[in-house]
Write a structure and sequence with these properties.
Layout (H helix, E strand, L loop, with lengths): L1 H16 L3 H54 L4 E4 L3 E7 L3 E10 L2 E10 L4 E9 L11 E5 L28 E10 L8 E4 L3 E2 L5
Antiparallel strand pairs: 1-2, 2-3, 3-4, 4-5, 6-7, 7-8, 7-9
């Protein structure tokens, strides 16, 4: 009888012992490791998603700027100047004329517009279109192609790749197509993005 009671008491003691401290610590460590893995995976996925979204936003912004330049170049009458980092064009409207300059300055693509009315009044507006622009003379923003069948004026010494004559003046009759190639590297991206158009043909010549 005594032996049976002792066994019953021992079993109750074992059942009352529950989970030991060591077992609790092991479980906590396992949950901590799983939590760290899940957190790391979530943060990595979020960062990747942010980079993809930033890239998409930048591409959309650059394409919008290219469309604007393309529209203005097509309606230029005439194109006044073109270099690797700047173009200057004029648009003639019914009641006014506009001189528009697109240029890279201090890592920014800037548009400057001077509007002159037929009455002689003028106004100037400047807008930064893109930031973190990497285009320089070594990485040209604008490239030109001469008009098909173009013949340079005698003694002008026109350089076909730039349509610039001897002495530095620009020959608007030379240029036929302008290609815009933008290189940007926003602070949120590690690699620069390059976006270019297929070349815009001038409709109006001087």
């Amino acid at each position: 009888m005594t032996t049976r009671r002792a066994l019953v008491i021992d079993r109750r003691r074992i059942a009352d012992d529950g989970i030991t401290l060591a077992e609790t610590l092991v479980v906590m460590v396992i949950f901590a490791i799983i939590g760290a893995i899940v957190t790391t995976a979530s943060v990595t996925a979020l960062r990747q998603q942010t980079k993809v979204q930033d890239r998409s936003d930048v591409l959309a912004q650059v394409r919008t700027v290219l469309q604007r330049i393309d529209r203005d170049v097509r309606s230029a009458n005439p194109l006044l100047a073109a270099t690797s980092t700047q173009i200057v064009l004029r648009q003639v409207l019914p009641t006014s004329s506009r001189t528009i300059t697109y240029a890279v300055s201090n890592g920014q693509l800037v548009a400057t517009q001077v509007t002159t009315t037929t009455a002689g009044a003028s106004s100037t507006s400047t807008k930064v279109l893109l930031r973190n622009v990497l285009n320089t003379t070594a990485i040209p923003l604008f490239s030109v192609l001469p008009t098909t069948g173009y013949v340079a004026p005698t003694g002008s010494g026109v350089t076909a790749s730039t349509c610039v004559m001897t002495g530095g003046s620009f020959d608007p009759g030379c240029i036929g197509t302008i290609t815009t190639r933008v290189v940007v590297r926003p602070s949120t991206l590690t690699q620069p993005l390059t976006v270019s158009d297929n070349g815009t043909q001038l409709r109006n010549q001087r």
